[in-house]
Write a structure and sequence with these properties.
The protein is α/β, with parallel strands linked by helices. It is built from 14 helices and 29 strands.
Length: about 550
């Protein structure tokens, strides 16, 4: 049975301009945001800043349908820029603050933007690439500086007076709200075109239990669906945000207490980092009431129990609108939830044929609601056609479904490993390796075997100040996983190569392969054999 989670379908509940105007009309003095420095914004204060910035952008020639770049860290300026762009019916195009060089030039070209709002600290990088259509830049957060070929203005340019200029037509739920870039793990980043409706459904389902009395911790990037969805949820419900620029393990609990956050999104290894801190007094009397954990590991659940909060989990990506979400406090390790109302999901083979229950295949999606899934990849018709073949959106993710209707994420299709006739999830290998003391993060990859197919290799990044004994790691893993999953090769590195969205570049690790400093357990005499369960000993 699908989860009957409500989400908005009417323009007045979806289009940011209309939602914020309604909030200001009903509760202008309600606190919308509290910042790390102790300052606060009400809904009316946000609206005033948004209108001023929208007027400033309109004076620079921005109109309905235009693309506008926002390149800045999480904070009040970034939120104002985003909503001001959408107030004009223009398209929000956020850049990752880590972009530079060729990748930066690629997204500048892909953006089709003539106007950009850029943090002053990033201007030097912008000056090192060709501007393409870009002509005007507004510097925020510091003084402007000259960039040859561009008109660079001070932040005061975003302080236009008067009422908003009239729109040529109302902003509709199917209009493009944003152009958000993928991580680019296997090639150049793609620009995902998303409607207002997709954003609204995403945030409504992703955090369906949060209401007007919740204060959402916003410490994730505004160039990613995580940051925009958190902000959208607060505005849609009339709740509030606790805003800090980024996640820091040592500052997390003091920040939660000082700013009164009731909810935190804990992606990736955030919960692991926090769980490794042994001082329980850090979270005593915390205002935190719930967390979203992705992935849902046993350690993550234990951590949520330890701090006394409810937990949820989810399956989502920039291109879709949260088709899978869990009930409160799910207990199945690795689940990513159940289907929500309106979403359709098939698990298919390489030719899009549905697979039987329990088998692993690619998740493909469609939705009962029009405009609930992406509108394609900007300036990339080939990728759009490939992703949408046969009328379903292809996620590239391998999943399975059990008899109870719970779904489990297995791996990215391209990252799966096949060894001795067994299909191995790199994700599941990484979960176990990350449990070893001293490991900060691990990436499991396939490397060629002299016997054909693949061998399993893990590339490990130690925690700060820690070392990882590779032989001890292998011995630790042997009783924790099937024999065929135990890595043959282990390599320790100071840093894992990453995309601008901080995903590990596994393609680079695979190309580097078995290096001179790689540990080979077989060469070290550590043999792992299949267990003979009838005799209770290795066969």
């Amino acid at each position: 049975m699908k989860l009957d989670i409500p989400f908005p379908t009417d323009r007045a509940e979806i289009v940011l301009r209309e939602v914020l105007e309604r909030r200001v009309a009903t509760h202008p003095d309600r606190v919308l945001a509290v910042f790390d420095d102790g300052s606060t914004w009400t809904y009316a204060m946000l609206r005033d800043r948004v209108v001023a910035a929208a007027n400033g952008l309109a004076a620079l020639g921005v109109g309905q349908g235009d693309h506008v770049v926002s390149w800045q860290p999480t904070g009040g300026d970034a939120i104002v820029t985003w909503i001001a762009i959408n107030y004009l019916g223009a398209v929000y195009v956020p850049f990752n603050t880590a972009y530079r060089g060729g990748l930066l030039e690629h997204v500048v070209w892909l953006s089709d933007a003539r106007v950009a709002v850029v943090h002053a600290d990033l201007l030097e990088r912008l000056g090192e690439v060709r501007p393409h259509l870009l002509a005007t830049v507004v510097a925020v957060g510091g003084p402007a500086r000259d960039i040859p070929g561009l008109k660079v203005l001070e932040q005061a340019a975003l302080s236009g007076g008067g009422e908003l200029p009239a729109l040529a037509r109302p902003v509709e739920v199917w209009d493009t709200q944003s152009l958000i870039f993928t991580s680019g793990t296997t090639g150049p980043s793609k620009g995902v075109l998303s409607s207002y409706k997709q954003h609204a459904i995403t945030s409504a389902v992703l955090y369906y239990w949060l209401g007007a009395d919740d204060r959402i911790l916003l410490n994730l990037p505004m160039f990613h669906i995580s940051g925009t969805s958190l902000t959208t949820r607060a505005i849609l419900t009339g709740g509030s945000l606790a805003i800090v620029e980024s996640f820091r393990t040592d500052a997390f609990w003091p920040t939660v207490k000082r700013l009164g956050a009731t909810f935190s999104l804990m992606m990736g290894s955030i919960a692991t980092f926090l769980a490794q801190r042994e001082d329980d007094s850090e979270f005593a009397d915390t205002p935190l009431r719930s967390v979203l954990l992705a992935p849902l590991t046993s350690d993550a659940m234990d951590f949520a129990r330890r701090i006394g909060v409810d937990w949820y989990t989810v399956f989502n990506m920039s291109e879709i609108s949260t088709p899978l979400v869990s009930v409160r406090n799910p207990t199945k390790v690795g689940t990513c939830g159940r289907l929500r109302r309106g979403a359709e999901l098939r698990i298919v083979d390489d030719h899009d044929n549905p697979l039987p229950e329990g088998q692993v295949g690619e998740a493909i999606l469609r939705d009962d609601e029009p405009w609930a899934i992406n509108s394609g990849y900007h300036k990339n018709p080939e990728a759009t056609a490939a992703a949408w073949r046969n009328g379903w959106f292809h996620t590239g993710d391998a999943v399975r479904r059990d008899a109870d209707g719970d779904y489990f994420y297995i791996d990215r299709i391209k990252d799966a490993i096949r060894r001795r006739g067994e299909n191995i999830s790199s994700f599941e290998v990484e979960v176990e390796v990350n449990e070893f003391p001293g490991v900060h993060e691990a990436a499991a990859i396939a490397v060629p075997s002299e016997h054909g197919e693949d061998e399993v290799m893990v590339v490990v990044m130690p925690a700060e100040g820690q070392t990882v004994d590779m032989a001890e790691l292998v011995e630790f893993l042997i009783p924790r996983m099937p024999h065929y999953m135990v890595p043959r090769y282990v390599r320790v590195v100071n840093e894992l190569p990453r995309t601008p969205t901080m995903k590990v570049r596994k393609a680079q690790l695979r190309s580097e392969g078995i290096t001179s400093d790689t540990f080979d357990r077989e060469a070290a005499g550590i043999r792992v054999r299949r267990q003979d369960f009838a005799r209770g000993r290795p066969a």
